[in-house]
């Protein structure tokens, strides 16, 4: 079980935000990790309204962050204090994952198999295809070691000269299938287009809302069923 730093708002409607923080901890625990929400831990003796207390709370939170394996940013709001925690996590090379409120409300569990997808999960010779609107497997070697995991494996290409096979430009703009963050890559950073069966296994482990992914998995399942029926 990994120790997960729960990053969520406190200021504003403090009472409501603390209730949400409890829910976020419950969610993290339900995903098989150990949640750590510092702002819950010292609410009994440090009041956010007092500036010196707030600064002390942030300082202690940063101290605990060093011992956590990763940071989960929970909810749809990123406050100034949260941004400071995110920046600190990135400096420490801690993986940062953004968990949307909708995913938490619907209790879509994130189990996160740590092993990244590889060449065996790709369609053979698909590097000769155009990449736009395709789901690609990112070569894990392009990332720092502690980011080698399944949540960083799949990206949906949407733009860039590198999407076209044989083009002189190699830039590929893509969205991470897991958390929706956007990034610029080189075409060579991708291993190939993901196999439908590997995509389905990935979706089973980390349920996300993505029309392209679910359509691709559904069509592959239908094709397999039709082929099985024909063989019989």
Describe the protein in words.
- This protein is α/β, with parallel strands linked by helices and 232 residues long.
- The protein is built from 7 helices and 9 strands; from the N terminus they run βαβααβαβαβββββαα.
- The longest helix has 21 residues, at 211-231.
- It is elongated, with a radius of gyration of 20 Å.
Fraction in beta strands: 15-25%
Which structural category do the helix and sheet elements fall into?
A: alpha/beta
Strand order of the largest sheet: 8-7-6-5-9
What is the H/E string?
A: EHEHHEHEHEEEEEHH
First-last Cα distance:
45 Å
Number of domains: 2
Mean pLDDT: 84
What is the radius of gyration computed over CA atoms, rounded to a whole number of angstroms? 20 Å
Number-wise, the strands total 9
Helix content: 25-40%
Spans of at least 5 consecutive residues with low confidence: none
Total helical segments: 7
Coarse morphology: elongated
Largest β sheet strand count, sense and barrel closure: 5 strands, antiparallel
Summary?
The protein is an alpha/beta fold and 232 residues long. It is 36% helix and 18% strand. The strands form two sheets. Strands 8-7-6-5-9 form a five-stranded antiparallel beta sheet, with no helix packed on it. Strands 2-1-3-4 form a four-stranded parallel beta sheet, sandwiched between helices.
List keywords for this structure.
18% strand; four-stranded parallel beta sheet; alpha/beta; 9 strands; Rossmann fold; 232 residues; single chain; five-stranded antiparallel beta sheet; 7 helices
Secondary-structure blueprint of this entry?
Blueprint: E1 3-7, H1 14-30, E2 34-36, H2 38-41, H3 51-65, E3 70-74, H4 80-91, E4 96-99, H5 101-105, E5 135-138, E6 154-159, E7 171-176, E8 182-186, E9 190-193, H6 196-205, H7 211-231
Parallel strand pairs: 1-2, 1-3, 3-4
Antiparallel strand pairs: 5-6, 5-9, 6-7, 7-8
């Amino acid at each position: 079980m990994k120790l997960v730093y729960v990053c969520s708002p406190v200021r504003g409607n403090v009472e409501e935000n603390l209730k949400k923080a409890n829910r976020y901890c419950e969610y993290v625990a339900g995903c098989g990790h150990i949640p750590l929400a510092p702002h819950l831990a010292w609410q009994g003796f440090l009041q956010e309204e007092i500036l010196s207390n707030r600064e002390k709370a942030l300082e202690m939170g940063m101290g605990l962050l060093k011992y956590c394996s990763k940071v989960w940013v929970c909810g749809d709001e990123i406050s100034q204090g949260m941004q400071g925690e995110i920046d600190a996590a990135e400096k420490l090379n801690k993986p940062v994952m953004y968990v949307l409120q909708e995913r938490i409300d619907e209790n879509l569990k994130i189990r996160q198999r740590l092993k990244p997808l590889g060449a065996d999960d790709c369609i053979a010779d698909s590097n000769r295809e155009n990449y736009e609107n395709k789901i690609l497997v990112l070569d894990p070697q392009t990332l720092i070691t502690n980011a080698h995991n399944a949540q960083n494996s799949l990206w949906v290409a949407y733009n860039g000269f590198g999407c076209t096979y044989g083009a002189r430009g190699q830039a590929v703009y893509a969205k991470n299938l897991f958390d929706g963050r956007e990034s610029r890559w080189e075409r060579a950073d991708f291993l190939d287009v993901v196999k439908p069966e590997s995509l389905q296994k990935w979706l089973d482990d980390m349920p996300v809302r993505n029309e392209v992914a679910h359509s691709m998995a559904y069509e592959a399942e239908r094709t397999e069923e039709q082929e099985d029926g024909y063989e019989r």
